[in-house]
Amino acid sequence: MTEQQQPTDNTTEHTQQPANDTADTVELSGEESIISKLETELAQTKAQLAEQHDLMLRIKAESDNIRRRASMDVEKAHKFALEKFSADLLPVVDNLERALAFINREDEALKGVVEGVELTVKSFLDTVAKYGVNQIDPQGQPFNPELHQAMSIQPSADVAPNTVTFVMQKGYELNGRLLRPAMVGVSKAPE
Predict the structure, then answer these.
(1) Enclosing domain of residue 34
(2) Could you count the other beta carbons within 10 Å of the beta carbon of residue 138?
(3) pLDDT tens across 105-143, in order?
(4) Which of 64, 81, 98 is the last residue of a domain?
(5) 18 and 77: one domain?
(6) CA–CA separation, 185 vs 148, rounded Å?
(7) Orientation of helix 111-130 relative to helix 83-102, angle to 10°
(8) Integer Cα distance of 17 and 113 in angstroms
(9) What's the rounded Cα separation, in Å, for the pair 178 and 89?
């Protein structure tokens, strides 16, 4: 019976072997699906990480831009805080300069008044210059439409065309920003 059992065992072995191959195949395909699933998850995680990294860089750049803009706004606020106040003071200096233009300088009795008004104007301009307000007096300079407002154009053979021939009202700027353009007369070539 041992002999008969051996062939039966052999048959059993051969029968079991294909079952093991199938189990191995099932086990391999199970591992392959897990590996495939993990690779997919890894790729998704990498893509999500790249998105998050890109978003973080954009947020950082935006915060830097906001910080820079806020800093510039604060700087401008400090620089131009006196703009309205300075513009309101300009008629005062205009009136003082008009007084000097119309006063009779030949009259000895008014010599002290002339000197006092001149010193007041100089002191006033020096004081506002400390705060960034500068006078624009373009007499004899080329016409600049960014700083000057042409009130009249007159033909002139004495000066080059587009030259400021007279100043009706001086202009002013605050830290490089125009407060008021100078009102001027401009020359043109004679016909």
Answers:
(1) 1-81
(2) 19
(3) 888 888 899 999 999 999 999 999 998 999 999 999 999
(4) 81
(5) yes
(6) 9
(7) 160
(8) 126
(9) 15
